[in-house]
Specification:
One of its GO terms (molecular function) is actin binding. Keywords: Actin-binding. InterPro entries: ADF-H (IPR002108), ADF-H/Gelsolin-like_dom_sf (IPR029006), ADF/Cofilin (IPR017904). Residues 44-178 form the ADF-H domain. The protein is α/β, with parallel strands linked by helices. It has helices at residues 38-45, 51-63, 92-98, 136-152, 170-177; strands at 2-16, 19-32, 48-49, 68-74, 79-86, 105-114, 120-129, 158-162. It has a single domain (47-177), classed as Severin (3-Layer(aba) Sandwich). The strands form 2 sheets. A 6-stranded mixed beta sheet has the order 3-5-4-6-7-8, with helices on both faces. A two-stranded antiparallel sheet has the order 1-2. Strand 4 and strand 5 (79-86) form a beta hairpin. The radius of gyration is 24 Å and the shape is globular.
Amino acid sequence: YLYIYIIRSIASKQRRRKGKRRKNICLLSVTFHPKLSLDSANAASGMAVHDDCKLRFLELKAKRTHRFIVYKIEEKQKQVVVEKVGEPVLSYEDFAASLPAEECRYAIYDFDFVTTENCQKSKIFFIAWCPDVAKVRSKMIYASSKDRFKRELDGIQVELQATDPTEMDLDVFKSRVN
């Protein structure tokens, strides 16, 4: 954690032809809290991404071998890892049941739908699941790591943030594909 202190304001005089003018200059000092390490600061800004996360996502995107992938952050290892992979035959209800009610997760869901022109299509959804009852520290870590994690997964088409199961039900998915 960075603490920025304003040390002091120095008044300097600057003379001009028509008189005196004062200019205030603020000096800043940046220090680290002595009890906290740099690792704590890195944990807040983003986690490493395990190679298996990218591999499973590429399998879902290219080969359609998975219906969904649930990711979790391992705080001790300081990285995002795959927690669960859903087979293509599993339903949306199976996906929703795989998200814990009191813990944050990232998830990828391959949503199949039929367009108004009667064409079968698919969209890849990224879901940031942060329930209201989750711990504040967990919410902060997931929120600060989300953008870096999404950049690692090239091919996400739609993003959802959900704090309640109703914010990511099938009707929400259907409305976001149109």
